[in-house]
Amino acid sequence: MNDGMVVVGIDGGEPSLRAARWAAAEATRRGVPLRVLLAFYWRTPLTAFAPSGELAEAARRFADMLVADVAREASAADPEAEVRAAALPGHPAEVLLKAGDDAALLVLGTRGRHAATGTVLGSVSQQVAVHASCPVVVVRGRPDPTGDILVGVDGSPASDLALALAFDEARQRGCGLVAVRAVETPLAPLPVGAPPVLYDTAEVQRVLAEQAVEQVSEASKRCPDVRWECHGVPGDAADVLVERSRRAQLAVVGSRGRGGFTGLLLGSVGLRLLHRADCPVLIAHAPHGAQGPEETS
User: Fold this and answer.
1) Would you say residue 201 lies in a domain?
2) What is the pLDDT of residues 163-217, one digit of tens each?
3) Radius of gyration of the chain (CA)
4) In which residue ranges of the chain is pLDDT below 70?
5) Are 158 and 219 in contact (CB under 8 A)?
6) Separation between Cα atoms, residue 38 and residue 16, nearest integer Å
7) Is residue 118 located within the same domain as residue 197?
8) N or C: which end of the chain has fewer CB atoms below 10 A?
9) What is the CATH number of the domain that holds 253?
10) Would the pTM count as exceeding 0.70?
């Protein structure tokens, strides 16, 4: 696993405070520092009527105070964590994505301070989850989730990476791993006018479930002390994982699975989990400089 630090992006809102507390515990588990990072703007329409230097300095002072407050909150939540704080000017998504180049993990809350009413996942969190060059956790769901690590598998290289990270998380946390292979039938829509295709739904589910067991069994070799189980479950993948997230402490998905296409960095299952899961969600991007499985086609 990448030995870089854990970086948490904050804005001072309650979701980012919760993310900072979660990130402090995660950094302690990994034995790495936690960097609390705030990105801020200072240019406003008032720039035309006041010296820009004064506005910039005021914005800097406020950002420094805010990030220091959140860093203290993270330290109080986990006194063993080595917490560092930084406030950097720039667009939040751009600043966080750059920070992710040298991080082991990026951690975000579900919603920013200025999110519109009804928004579940802020645009910054979604941009970072989609485009990061390291794994990303979006902290959401139950306040103190317990249970095993939940991971979605589908036979793709992306889910191989998700499995590897899920086993690492289970080993660090001393818990088990539950892998789920959701099986939707029919598997694909038929062309207009094509004759019906007859197949045994139960047999399709059995074969795909056996393939998933083989995939998980192979991945388990990296952490032979972690207990695991694998289930083939009929239904929509996102719906199945959301339901099972109610009994998990962390849900892990690949950044792109089967059915993905060139340019799609995070599939619909991952996006729906980010909006609906009842526990934190880890999007399994390969860490910067790490040797991960090859990309899916």
Assistant:
1) yes
2) 999 999 999 999 999 999 988 765 555 666 666 555 667 777 788 889 999 999 9
3) 21
4) 1-3, 42-53, 111-122, 185-200, 256-267, 287-297
5) no
6) 10
7) no
8) C
9) 3.40.50.12370
10) yes
